[in-house]
Write a structure and sequence with these properties.
Blueprint (H helix, E strand, L loop, with lengths): L1 H12 L2 H9 L10 E5 L4 H12 L3 E5 L8 H8 L4 E2 L7 H12 L5 E4 L3 H8 L10 E4 L2 H12 L7 E3 L4 H24 L7 E5 L3 H12 L3 E5 L3 H9 L3 E2 L2 H4 L5 E4 L9 H6 L5 E4 L9 H7 L2 E6 L2 E5 L5 E5 L5 H4 L6 H19 L7 E3 L2 H15 L8 H8 L2
Parallel strand pairs: 1-2, 1-4, 2-3, 4-5, 5-6, 6-15, 7-8, 7-10, 8-9, 10-11, 11-14
Antiparallel strand pairs: 12-13, 13-14
Helix pairs in contact: 1-3, 1-4, 2-3, 2-15, 3-15, 5-6, 8-9, 8-15, 15-16
Amino acid sequence: MISGHKKIDWAKRFMPLLNLIESEYSQQKPLKDFTVGMSIHLEAKTACLAITLRNLGAKVVITGSNPLSTQDDVAEALKEHEITVFAKHTKDEDVYFRGIVSVLEQNPDLILDDGADLTITAHTKIPSALKNLKGITEETTTGVRRIKALQSQGKLKIPVIAVNDALMKHLFDNRYGTGQSTWDSVMRNTNLLVSGKTVVVAGYGWCGRGIAFRARGLGARVIVTEIDPIKAIEAIMDGFEVMRMKEAAEHGDFFICATGNTSVISVEEFLRMKNGAVLSNAGHFNVEVDVKALERLATQKFEARENVTGYILPNGKTIFLLAEGRLVNLAAADGHPVEIMDLSFAVQTLSLIYLSQTSLQPEVYPVPAEIDYRVAEMKLKTLGVKIDELSIEQRRYLESF
């Protein structure tokens, strides 16, 4: 589709790191003879990643990592780059998981995962898919958590690189990417003013921090809810109010979850909320807002706007849920800014090349420090920024301790 090609071409213009990597490895093609299976939010930026891997020699098979985040025009355009695509924008969970299974049936040598559905499905339901697997990279906080749980149970059979934990990923993608893209989605889908409103952010990890700081920048009063006393103190010292969710429920105009956990907002909170409160989720899975409980509680449900569902409660108040409680920045918008994903995907690409050339035992590994620093140096180069280097005398001084 023409629109899909336009989206890909636009993203590629602003992804200098992927372009640099592709140029550097274009002759040697380090992923030649490797099949890379991908489960990822399939839109223009991830299409650029898939094309880069294809141009590095890989056979690429791809599906979505969320039923609603696939952009069908991009998926169709991607097929013209000799990439096998199983993704489809859908509300049907069965259709979504058929895409996951279809990728695994291609017996990939490497997996690039976003949320760990490929990894978990291979380990628990399709063990034959493990026979060719040399390594896995995982993009998200939730995915790394799921894979570490698999490892703690003694069930992990393949080495995994936790790309999410790389400094050049979570310090930028989780904080600046989630911060900007979440508010982009909330504002474009509601067309409501943020300034002067009260925003409740559940969770003060890197994603929650980004969301909270962007909310303050838009003129909102920000309340943070947390279960971790250290993160709660951080939020206080960053200038935010901290309280329990059941108390915050009475104050919020906008609620955004970023915890990775289930039922963060449920019946007690729904009934305490203001008339017109807007709820959304920035976590990977649609479990943070208890949508099933909301469906049972509501006396009436209606479509207020595209991607906005209104629920009339027994107390007569109406609250609004964005994107069915799914990952709001991708299910109802375009995801993280292009330049942010260029950073994350540079880490992903170099990690896949590393896995293709290295034999590791089945466990979860950090991204090698040299990859983190290489991506940082590449980014500075594309920005035209030079930084100081230690002199010989300075190096000797530090080494003397």
